[in-house]
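[step 3/7] fold_predict: job queued, chain A
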Amino acid sequence: MKSLTRIRILLFSLYFPINALSSGTGCYASDPVSNDTIDIQTLYNGRAWRNLFYKVRGDQFLFSPEFLPGSVTIHGKLFENIPLKYDIYNDELLIITDQGIILQLNKEIIGKFTLNCENRILSFRNFDADSINSVQGYVNVLYEGGISLYIKYRKEILSLAVENKYDLFNPVNKVFVRKDGEIIKVDSKGELLKLFGDQKHQVRSYIRSSKLRVSRKDPESFKPVIEYYDKLHN
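[step 4/7] structure written:
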């Protein structure tokens, strides 16, 4: 606790706006917050982070092991142009200060965040752990309307998967659909069609005519189907 307190004191006393930070992928972040002490304390609410998986091949992050520009909403306050990394193995959001200290942000006070890279902006919402639905933690809101599409990005560790010597991070995506107030996990095109009731035949025809390939390995492939059904249903 004493070491954590010293870290926070150092952050608050030495802070000045974060300079442009290149991620190596054409993304950057700059000037996340003002010099207002309350803003600093609100944003830098977390604990020092250490990488415990440096011996595992690959990495535990979404998109890139580098920091990406994004935004985060904490206690309803929006902070923009923030350098962020999303650890999808632990389902935790990381930030780096201009002193090079990496913090794991306090998940309990984060409402939502975005990640921006290569002309893509992904929006994530923090579903409460006590939610009655089957999805919890940070979830990518891919489509929202009369019916909604959520993606849960995760990684698992495969033991000795590389040359029978090294563990390996392996991505695992989960697709959820919110329909009639209920959030349901969907693992295949067949399970998705079952949700559409009498209109599943029209949706199936749309998939065939549009030559769509719907697969959990590519979560965004569910989006045009969801959009079509939403328009059809309404």
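[step 5/7] annotate
Helices lie at 2-14, 37-43, 189-194, 200-209, 223-233.
Confidence is low (pLDDT under 50) at residues 4-26, 28-32.
exit 0
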